[in-house]
């Protein structure tokens, strides 16, 4: 088969027996005007990854404070990670930890409802009519989505949209309507990388590789690639093959129905490592979607609040039963450490994903993929589902003039924390220092992603500290 690169763009596929695999972005298949030259603009991507129910925030006098506080000790460029967050240490110069940010309209919202407004900043009342707004990812998708095969990738562990005030998706359109999230790695893989007819679908159902029928086509293509692109192309095929294997394993966990048997039987049926594999595979889908330039916008809601859904069982990755219960057991001996170990698992997987982007040269561009990608990772709760002082990490974007290596603490020296006594919940208490509006971070992200805007959700102003 002869290839004509004048007709080959980044949306072209390798083909075999009715299946098709998306090509990676290569310098050889770009028009001259888009080749790797001084005038070329790199793609700019954004991914937002959310976890529910907050983080460990023991008081200073608590023995767990030194090791298991989620927020670092110190500030500015002089700070140290704890055991909860030390997975970020190798990425220290590629990320910024943020403290003291929240959405003003959500500060009195109970933490069981926070995913709804994490990327929208909407004021969602406890009851009455439900009204949301457009999410950060969809604002950027409107700007850049027509340049890729998919305008955005919307994922969550629980899938679908959930219910009002209990969202199972982070993404909302201009009308404030929830955009359904995909939870199956297999369906995401096929959607992104394999277009198939009935015969191909049957072959894939029999666990045959999507790549097997395409190797002859791939060899023809490899023969006319540059040496650099040949290396990138082979690494891409290896990545897809690896992801394909992981998808087959991970879908066994997410497709398992919610248990109706006793807890002991449930423990025996599910491997503690399956949830970790599942989270890794979902993040791998974002990596491969970005690498093939199938989309430049992605969201992944790792879990939903209030302990409902399959996502609550992710705690089994580190030997616990249910994730949400860990947040209510912090007043028990060892409670902060247990919650810290679960949060460390999430931090490790985010760090692994971020590192993979950092170690991958930008296809047909400059720097690494991480240099051209903004990653927002965090929760809309701090301790006890408190809707203030969100735990947040912003990573990547070196080629977008984002300056990292800092812990920006605007929460003061004594944010609300400690073990909940069971009395009035902390979100109802008056605090001495108001948070910074998180929308200022959103505006900064959109500006550095190339959008001309100075407002988000009706709030104006950016956050220059991220740029200096």
UniProtKB/TrEMBL annotation:
Cleaved signal peptide residues: 1-34
Entry keyword Signal: yes
Keyword Plastid set for record: no
InterPro entries linked to this entry: DUF1552, TAT_signal
Alphabetical keyword list: Signal
Pfam family, one: HXXSHH
Transmembrane segments: none
Protein name: DUF1552 domain-containing protein
Organism: Rubripirellula tenax
